[in-house]
Amino acid sequence: MVEQFVGTWKLTASDNFDEYMKAIGVGFATRQMGNMAKPNLVFSVSDGVISMKAQSTFKTTEISFKLNEEFDETTADDRKTKTTFTFENGKLVQKQTWDGKTTVLEREIQDGKLIAKCTMDDVVAVRTYEKEA
Ligand code: DKA
């Protein structure tokens, strides 16, 4: 159920994120901002439309989408991607393709925390979010 993601989540840990950003082609200056940012992730669901807002001092992005339907996304690092979300085995899976490349971001709830696993080729970053009271 995607409803389990609904709420506001705060980044509390980030592992290998700089390497992930390098792997997707993010330049040095933007990586510094990305490494420092402690985003809030805000999920809501209404009438089958899921909204995901990532708020930080660096940038705020918001996307709204339906599962299994491709849409155009502009990412925080300004990639223009074709993006599709699916829900598989309890994981919300975001597939982004651009310039012949593909990255996958899998989000799931584990022990009450939202875990985001970001994969680009053989590079994996894991980011942990905890729910705001
Ligand atoms: C997450 O949900 C993963 C966010 C991935 C963003 C990649 C681009 C960042 C550029 C600053 O935590």
What does this structure look like?
The protein is mainly beta. The protein is 13% helix and 58% strand. The protein contains two helices and ten strands. It has a ten-stranded antiparallel beta sheet with strand order 4-3-2-1-10-9-8-7-6-5. A hairpin with a 5-residue loop joins strand 5 and strand 6. The longest helix is centred in the N-terminal third of the chain and has 9 residues. The structure holds decanoic acid. InterPro entries: Calycin, Fatty_acid-bd, ILBP, Lipocln_cytosolic_FA-bd_dom. This is Cellular retinoic acid-binding protein 1. It comes from Mugilogobius chulae. Keywords: Retinol-binding, Transport, Vitamin A. Belongs to the calycin superfamily. Fatty-acid binding protein (FABP) family.
Distinct ligands, ions and cofactors found in the model = decanoic acid
* Bulk shape: globular
Distance between the termini: 21 Å
Output the radius of gyration.
14 Å
Q: What is the helix tally?
A: 2
Strand order of the largest sheet: 4-3-2-1-10-9-8-7-6-5
The proportion of residues in beta strands is over 45%
Uncertain regions: pLDDT < 50 for 5+ in a row?
none
Largest sheet: 10 strands, antiparallel
The arrangement of helices and strands along the chain is EHHEEEEEEEEE
Q: Percent range for helical residues? A: 10-25%
Number of strands: 10
Output mean pLDDT: 97
Structural class: mainly beta
